[in-house]
Amino acid sequence: MHAVIGNWKQNPATIDEVNTLLDSLLAATEDKDANDQHCQLMVAPSCIHLAGVSARLQNTSILAAAQDISAHSSSIGAYTGDCSAQQIADAGATWTILGHSERRQYHKESHQTLVNKVNNAFEHNLGVVFCIGETQTQYDDKQTFAVLDKQLAVIKDSIAKLKEQHIDSKKLSEDLIIAYEPVWAIGTGKVPTVEEVSATHEHIKQTVAAFDKALPAVTVLYGGSVNTDNADDFAASTMIDGALVGGASLKADSFLAIANAFNRAKS
């Protein structure tokens, strides 16, 4: 699977701005031949805009994703401020981003918290975009692979939980995407080389494949200051299956230019 996902984070500010962005995206994609689309497009709006965005994306080529789900319950409960996997799915999302470095940093998300979230997502048939990445200090100290292995242990433990529940782990091959986002590259303009990212993606793919025979070729996206200037270079790598795009996804032209780079390369 190849995918380009726009993580809107806490943007835009208003529904009018959301609709303007969607107008531009849909106008540019609705006339494209489906046979020319080799990358799945997806956008992840803030929770308050999710239902509206999902409704507008019905019967289009673009999917809607959530930016997070509750770890405490997959359905309902006394968890003020949380949105459950069931509620997110009911709002029209088919995927959710989990483990983003901003969630890890600002909300102190633990290993067990993320295991719970991943399994809650799968319980309600939400695909998971699982984010991993190292800090600048860890990168400088050449700890990248060790850090990623520790973060990927969430997926290993989630697979074990699925097996306890007698859920076929083969569904992960279609419902799991790993997004490698070096923390030091997110929104900073700093970008690792394509060679570095490719080697890291190869390590991720090999690590996840070792968890379960049902995961021989997990999709791995790159995120971290992806823009229109470097998208072609990243797309040319056979190890990079797409992109998780932040700021550049808030303008339709830049987001679609990145998507088109991957469409051309993966055709």
* Strand order, largest beta sheet: 7-6-5-4-3-2-1-8
Output the number of helix runs. Answer: 11
Based on CA inertia axes, which overall geometry fits?
globular
Strand content: 5-15%
> N-to-C SSE series?
EHEHEHEHHEHHHEHEHEH
What is the share of helical residues?
A: 40-55%
Q: Give the overall average pLDDT.
A: 93
The profile of the biggest β sheet is: 8 strands, parallel
* Helix-strand category: alpha/beta
Radius of gyration in whole Å, from Cα?
17 Å
Q: How far apart, in Å, are the first and last alpha carbons?
A: 12 Å
Number of strands: 8
Question: Which stretches of 5+ consecutive residues score pLDDT under 50?
Answer: none
Short characterization:
Helices cover 45% and strands 14% of the residues. The protein is α/β, with parallel strands linked by helices.
